[in-house]
Structures are given as structure tokens and as C-alpha cells.
Amino acid sequence: MRQDTALLAPDGGARDVQNASASLPNPGLHHVAGGLLNALLRETAIGTREGAVLRLALGGGSWLAIPVVHDSSAGRHAFAAEWRFVTAQAAPQPISVPDGLACLLREGAFGDLATPDHREKLLTRALDAGAAIDASITARGAEVSDALTRPPEFLAAEQGLLLGHPVHPAPKSRDAFHGEDQTYAPELGGSFPLIWLSVAPEALVIGEAAPGFGVRALTAMAHAEAVSAEPGRVLLPMHPWQWARLRETPEVAAQIDRGAIRVLDANGAPWWPTASVRSLWAPHAPFMLKVSLSIQVTNSVRVLRQDEVDRGIQVQRILDSPIGEALRAQSPQFRFLGEPVYAMLRAADGQALPDSLVVLRENPINRPDAPVAMLAALCQDHPTGGDAWIVELIGRVSRARGLPWAEAAGLWFDRFLDVAIAPVLLAASDFGLLFGAHQQNLLIGLADDLPATAMFRDCQGTAYVVEFEAAIAEHIPDIGTSGCSGFSSETAAKLISYYIFLNAVFLTIAAIARSGQITEAALFELWRGFLEDLAAGPRRDHRLFALGLAAPDLTTKGNFLIALSGLDEAGAAIDPITLYHDFPNPLVA
Question: For residue 445, what is the enclosing H or E element?
Fold first, then answer.
């Protein structure tokens, strides 16, 4: 049965899980198993609870028995590594986590939800994810552990996300970046220079939020890299992995042969891959880069699509309009990072080549030690044992202000909600703009170890509420025909309940409460008060607040079933809401 009945129990045992995986021979796989089980329990009816043991039904009347060492209303339960294989005819037998995962994915009672081939592929991805996490812990665990003893810094956070999504069955699986290519993996601390191309105008497609801005922005990027422009041509940056594959395609090879594309010598200034792998950052550059990479990471192949880059242009136009001015006036501590330019190569016959897409994203961060950190890195379990970064931060606040730890935790969480969560909720309720502000897309600026500013990045996860279309169209007349996704207020509230409620907020609650020094219940009461205060204001649309405060069920993304089915989430031609499932609302349960 689903989480609401399979794992309905009060908070408990949090302190016991802090170092649960660190002493295991394969801590990466233990983390993957936890993410897989938590995702499975949210989405399927396979699990039942017998006291402190989770029972997962297999075929032939057998089952797996897994001890639960920490219950979580936020959806981040913790499990021991002492799994048992049980049948009605024999005594329970110990089974290793790898063998247990193999039994679960091959024999689990999922009905006709997946073919045997899909089951086997997910098992391979899960085992590969565990091995990848173990490799990154071996390579950089000591470095990341040292960083966690200091105030958070931007680059350390971006390249310190060793464990990946905590509610996903294969959080660090990739179908590429092996051998020498691992320099492109952020969790291995890689950096590399860009490839610079000199491109004839007829061999290039440019999208821009304002006329002429595209070429000016690309020229500014090249100038920051000391790359000289050639008369009558446009300079285009490219990820080395992306270019190594593009140049072998017939379309690009033909353009190289005819001189429409030339590779330039550059100065080799380093760029760093951020946590999303395909987004790159450098302190000297006026823009970050987001590029097309034909590799699968978690639920999607990371090739940019035309509708995604068009969405970035529309978001930039909105941010440049009076709507953007109103957003900034309402939440001056918050910044929505625009994506004002995209560019891609064109074949000789005029066909655009989306595998070559490059997006320019605003870059307000000009040093690696800037006191700005991705929320996912703050909430990540300590990769080698110990407290999460957010727990360390709260401890410093407690000591500096002479507060009991739980009171400092409440202060930190309240500041986080006001600084980072209120702006994205109000953007939806007051302006009809949806920003998928999950933990990896939220950057938290810190002052005296408390949240002081915040930024949202990645326009891929943006949309608008159709009931606001007329108001938005006063400033962006083509909003309804631009390819920017529009959802009803009801659907928008459901999407917000996953990206912002469950992912950004509930996973933060879970990370703080796993310290054992404050309960999830106490933090959920602060969350309730925060929603009530916002709902009491002059909101244009109250639906998302009514959902959060009173609905028995919220919405969670089907990460397990998406992975089990082999679906490419970003490229699938389906209604996205069909990928979501009910999740019991902790404020109502």
C-alpha cells in the first residue's frame, strides 16, 4: 500500500540514521536503495508495514523484510541495510542490498507496470548509480567533508552534490562520461575549457529576448575569454563533449568542409560543470551556459528542445516587462535568473541542429567562494558520515546567538521560507507564473549563516496559469501562442505542490529533522503558519494555499515508475500531470 498507510508513524530515530551508511562497504548503493524505496512507496501499493519492518511483496508468495529506522511524514524514511528474504515455508534469510534490489526489481509485484527488459534496465541503472556514488565518495569524500566544516561556498556546493536526488531510484546514473570524459562530471570536481567556433551567419540560428542582443551577448562572452571575432562571423561557445560528437555528424562535417564553421584557438580559461551536469559556470563570464548533451541523467535525456529554449526567451521578456518589475518590488531579496539568448548550428540545407543548442543564462556569481549555495547541497546527507551542511549551519546559528538548537532551527527555517519560498509562491498566486523551484534550482544566499537572498535558475521548469493569460498578454502579447506551457489553476497548484512543497520545503524539513534535535512535526507547524500568513494577504488565486493547508493529498512526481517504464520525461509527448501521484498532506493527515 502507498506511503499513507505503509509508513504512517511518528517521527523517530533520526539521530540513528546520521551515520547509517558511512560505515558500510558500499554507502552509495545504500543511498540509492533508500531513494528507490522512498520513491516506490510514494507511487505503488507494494509495501505494507509490520511494526518497524517494511514488507515488500515479491512473486511466489515471498517478500523482502527491511527494517525502518526513521519514519518521515516528509517522505524521506530511512532503512537499515539488514534486509531479509522471507517465504512462508522457511525462516527469514539475510540478503545483501544488491541482491535484494535484484529480487525487488525482477520479482516485485508491480503487475504489468513494466516489461522484464525495463525491470532489468532499471536494476542496471540503480547498481551503476551506487557504483558512481561510491567512486565519487572515494575520489572526493574527504574534500567535500572538509568543505562541510566551513560556511557554504558556491562552487563547493555545486560540485559537492555526491549523492544526488534522495527520492529517486537511480540518482547519479548516466549513460556516458566514462574514462577521460569523467572530467565533465561535477561530482568529480572537473573543469575544462570551452570549444569556440567561428560561424558564418547563415550557419547559425539565434533566439533573443531583444533585437540584436544575441550577437552582442555572444561577443561579450568571447571577449571575456579573450577570443577575437572574425569580420562578418559570429562566435559560438560549445561544450567539448557536445562538440566531439557534433563534428562527426554529416551535417556539421559538411559545414566545416565548406568553411561555414571553424574551430578557433582559445586561451583555455576553465569552466566548471555545475550540479546539473549540462550547465557550466566560470567566474569571468557574464553568462552561464546550458548546453545540449545527449546523455540520460535521472528521468531525461539532456538534449535541449526548441520549446524549452523558447520558454527561456519568454521568461526573459516577462522579467524585462512591468511584471518583472513588480516581482522584484514584491521580493527584492529574490532573483529569477533569465535566459535571454540561445544559439544553435544550422545545416547547409537550412535545418536547425538542436543537439548543438547553447543557452546563455545570467551569471551574477563572480567568484567560486561566493556565499551562495544550492539548496540540494545544503540538505544532502553527509557523504562520509556526520551532519548535513544545513545542520552544521543551524549549529553555528545556535552557538552565535546563544539559542537552543531547536529554536535556531526554527529561525533558519522561517528565514528560508520568507526569503526563498514566498517569492515563488507569490509569483504563482499573484502573477500566474510557475517556476519549478525544486532544491537543485534554488540558490540560497547566506549572511551570518542564515538565508538572506535567493535565486531561481533554469527556465525549463517554467509555465504560466491560463487564468492569468489575459493579464500577462498585456505585456507579452504572444504568450498564448509562444509554446510557453500553460496550465489551469488547479493543475498549477498540483505541480507547485510537488516542486515547491514536497521537493523544496519537505526535503528541507526532512534534512533538518534527521539531526534528531527537532521533529518534523514542529517544522510542519511553522510551514502551516507560513502558508496561513500568505493566504491571508490580497492573493489573486488562493488555490495553491487551499491545497497546501486543507487538501488530504498533495502531488508527487512518479520518479520510480518513470524510471521503471524507461520513459524520457522531458521528451515524452504526454500530459505531464499523468506522471504524478497522490501524497498524503502532513498538515491534514
Answer: strand 442-447
Consecutive H or E run containing 100: helix 97-107
240: in domain: yes
pLDDT tens digits for range 503-553: 999 999 999 999 999 999 999 999 999 999 999 999 999 999 999 999 999
Residues 412 and 438 in one domain: yes
Cell triple for residue 136?
A: 565519487
The domain boundary, picked from 151, 176, 209, lies at: 151
Per DSSP, helices labelled H in 7-58 are 14-17, 27-43
Q: How far apart are CA 538 and CA 473, in angstroms?
A: 22
Match 570551452 to its residue by C-alpha cell: 194
In this prediction, residue 90 carries a pLDDT of: 83
Domain hosting 147: range is 3-151
Q: Which pLDDT value is given to residue 11? A: 41
pLDDT at residue 14 in the model: 44
What amino acid occupies position 448? Answer: D
Distance of CA 407 to the CA centre of its chain: 29
Enumerate helices (H) and strands (E) in the chain, giving the number of each.
Answer: 21, 26
Q: Give the integer Cα–Cα distance in Å for 390 and 449.
A: 9
Query: CATH no. for residue 461?
Result: 1.10.510.40
Other beta carbons less than 10 A from residue 574's beta carbon: 9
How far from chain centre, in Å, is Cα 418? Answer: 21
How is 230-295 classified by DSSP, letter by letter? -TT-EEEEE-HHHHHHHTTSHHHHHHHHTTSEEEEP-----BEE-TTSSEEE-TT-SEEEEE---S
In a domain, 110, yes or no: yes
pLDDT (0 to 100) of residue 228 = 87
Per this entry, what is the length of the chain?
589
The DSSP H or E segment spanning 442 is strand 442-447
pLDDT at res. 113: 72
Confidence (pLDDT) at 57: 92
CA dihedral 315, 316, 322, 327 (to 10 degrees): 70
Q: Which residues of the chain have pLDDT under 50?
A: 1-16, 19-20, 299
- Asked if 112 and 21 sit in the same domain, the reply is yes
Q: Write down which residue in 362, 391, 406 finishes a domain.
A: 362
| Same-domain pairing of 347 and 397 | no
Pairwise CA distance, residues 251 & 554, whole Å? 47
589's CB contacts (< 8 A; 6+ apart) are 4, 8, 73, 552
Got the DSSP string for 516-570?
A: SSS-HHHHHHHHHHHHHHHHTS--S--HHHHHHHH-SEEEEE-HHHHHHHT--TT
Q: Is the domain of 263 the same as that of 223?
A: yes
